[in-house]
Specification:
The protein is of the alpha/beta class. It has helices spanning 75-78, 88-100, 108-114, 128-131, 160-163, and strands at residues 34-38, 40-43, 51-56, 71-74, 122-123, 145-149, 154-159. The chain is built from 5 helices and 7 strands.
């Protein structure tokens, strides 16, 4: 029977997927080379005085089955388009473990790979209260990106250097 390659029918065991699974960014994604990001909120109603609100653009739900509202940004934007002074990922590697807790990552690419999951976003800006742990307002990155809102609507992601730039 062995030489005739005759055997009992075999069943293939397939792994069951969870019924509700949070979306992750795949290696070959239609979103391109984007990652999940988190931003502090900034109220832009008064052009002359920015008001940094003590909240983030979205909050992570407690339940594992709920979807996470999320934002994405390109890795080029996160890394400052090649300008090391504008690289928000490097800033996060240096400061995030002091601000939010947890272990310090040793390499930038570890944070970048983890950000394919919405539970581990890259922080493009921090709230004022969170910055107190690392020196307060002076620790705010010059190129930090905030989620701008007005009284009537949300504006979206905007860099702080565009908000504080004074025309001569």
């Amino acid at each position: 029977m062995i030489t005739a390659k005759v055997s009992e029918p075999q069943t293939m065991i397939t792994r069951k997927k969870q019924q509700i699974q949070r979306a992750k960014i795949g290696s070959n994604s239609l979103r391109g080379d984007s990652r999940f990001v988190q931003m502090a909120v900034c109220n832009l109603d008064d052009k002359n005085a920015l008001k940094f609100i003590e909240e983030y653009a979205y909050s992570e739900p407690v339940s594992e089955t709920e979807n996470i509202d999320n934002l994405t940004a390109s890795t080029e934007l996160i890394q400052g388009y090649g300008d090391s002074a504008s690289n928000l990922l490097t800033h996060m590697v240096k400061k995030h473990h002091n601000i939010m807790g947890g272990a310090k990552p040793y390499k930038d690419f570890i944070l970048l790979n983890d950000a394919k999951d919405p539970e581990f976003p890259i922080y493009l800006s921090y709230t004022s209260n969170d910055l107190l742990a690392v020196g307060g307002e002076s620790a705010r990155h010059n190129s930090a990106i905030y989620y701008g809102v007005c009284e009537k609507q949300a504006i979206g992601a905007i860099a702080i250097k565009h908000l504080t730039h004074k025309k001569d």
